[in-house]
Amino acid sequence: MGDALLAQARLAYADHRWDVAYTTFAEVADTGDLDTDDLAAFADAAWWLGDTDRSLELSEQVYRRCLQGDRTPVAARLAIEIGFLWLIRGEQQIGSGWISRARRLLAEVPECAELGYLHYLAVLEALDTARFDEARTMSQQMQTLATTHGDATLCAMALVVEGIATVRAGQVADGLALCDEAMLPVRAGDVERSWAGNLYCLVMALCFELADFDRARAWTDATERWCDQFSNAAMFTGICRVHRAQLLHLEGAWDQAESRAVQACRDLADMNVEVVSAGHYEIGELRRVRGDDDGAEQAFARAHALGRDPQPGLALLRLAQGDATAARMSLETALAATEPPLPRVPLLIALVDVAEVTQDPDLAGSAAAELAVIAATFTTPGIRARAATAAGVAHLLAGEPDQALAALREASRTWRTVGGRYDTARTQVRLAQALAAAGDTDTADRERDQAIATFVALGARPDLEAVAAEGDVTAPAAPGGLTDREVEVLRLVADGASNATVAEHLTISARTVERHVSNIFLKLGVSSRTQAARFAFEHGLVGGTT
């Protein structure tokens, strides 16, 4: 019976049916000892299922057996992997202890491939602290070890981290080419599973850092397909959910985006603190753009508690709450502590928003100038769109509508190309301002109308200062998110007035009335004047109602 169960467990493990493998190995272990390889498979199945505590417990047993069996390099490799798991859980002291143990063991044996895995952790640290030349040197040492000892997994790891260091150092095409080369054996299945997942995640993260959304979609799709071949891939599925949430956010599917991020935070709570903090930050951003200030505040606080800098999201929340001074101070403090160019991009574009609200052309101009320099090196669509947006706002504030038009048209085209619905709408608002300043009010109205329609469809917090026309602002107590002017128009429509009559009564153009009526229909979800009038009577917007 025991032999049959063990064969069943081994078969399930080979077929990546982690739940069956785990349960069956556990049943065998209850009646007798597993050999070292089976115990290692038991630990691995537990990890894939997301039971990190059990996996670590079993892995430590395997480690001790390897030491007793004079398998020092294997024990060192296990110590590195155990330490890595503790580190990503946020347990720095325990993780560091295991890494130190691995380093001591490897110092006692001849050079072996396991030394390259120790180098890998050092490269990750160098990347985090912007020591890109050092990271490249160490990654090349990893490649030498991989070649010498015939380790395909180590070779792929070395190429990926060299690619990331090369990209961050400003050689984008060369760095991405290295990453693409590294992922060929990963796609072919020649790289150990757990490290293959790690490499997929590193490449995905790099694409989002570059705001290269087409590449980000392609690699997120590829990683999801890779995860689908396993019965469960808790860690990597959770990481994919956060990245998918970022893409859904960009595309305007905000409910789905928040659902994915919330699930990832729940599933990875005890596995990967960095990813969970990124998930909470994404939740905060989704709530911020929808006007859920309390929800955003809570999510940003949770991200911060887990070690994620809540900027620029928290600063933009303060800006939306009317505290531009606090927003600017937070962003400038964050920029002072951020040297590498890529992490500065979201901070700088947020500073442009502050400049726009405070009508500060110098602030917008300096941020736009730096973004232009960054975009000249990191020429991905997302960074180019942000740089063009910043330039457009800077020209608007400087009273240069013609130059603003050129920049904002480029930004609008690029945001549409990458599928950024909300960013496109915000750009259209600014484009409308530039068009109006240049005297093209008809085209300005069309751009503004499209932006308002997008804000309404997304359920977004409207950019009131930019969207507002003729001093129109949202009435604090008005139902349906209507503005003061829209309430005035709706009252007259409910009384049976034509557009021409409304225009005459309010001393505005018929074209403006048409735009207001269209916006009212969109906000209320109605398709006729009769339905709009019914809404007005039901909500007490017409005299004589309660």
Could you tell me the mean pLDDT? 92
- SSE order in H/E notation? HHHHHHHHHHHHHHHHHHHHHHHHHHHHH
Count of β-strands: 0
Number of helices: 29
Which CATH architecture of the largest domain?
A: Alpha Horseshoe
As for the CATH topology of the largest domain, it is Serine Threonine Protein Phosphatase 5, Tetratricopeptide repeat
Shape: elongated
Number of domains: 4
Share in helix: over 70%
Largest sheet, in brief, is: none
What Rg, in angstroms, do the CA atoms define? 28 Å
Structural class: mainly alpha
Q: Can you identify the CATH superfamily of the largest domain? A: Tetratricopeptide repeat domain
The stretches of 5 or more residues where confidence is low (pLDDT under 50) are 464-476
CATH class of the largest domain: Mainly Alpha
Task: Tell me the strand percentage band.
Answer: under 5%
From the N-terminal CA to the C-terminal CA, the straight-line distance is 78 Å
Features:
elongated, 546 residues, 4 domains, Serine Threonine Protein Phosphatase 5, Tetratricopeptide repeat, mainly alpha, 0% strand
Structural overview:
It is a single chain. The protein is mainly alpha-helical. It folds into four domains: 248 residues, Tetratricopeptide repeat domain (Serine Threonine Protein Phosphatase 5, Tetratricopeptide repeat); 59 residues, no CATH class; 108 residues, Serine Threonine Protein Phosphatase 5, Tetratricopeptide repeat (Alpha Horseshoe); 60 residues, Arc Repressor Mutant, subunit A (Orthogonal Bundle), CATH 1.10.10. Helix 7 runs parallel beside helix 9, helix 15 runs antiparallel to helix 16 and helix 17 runs antiparallel to helix 18. 49% of the residues are buried.
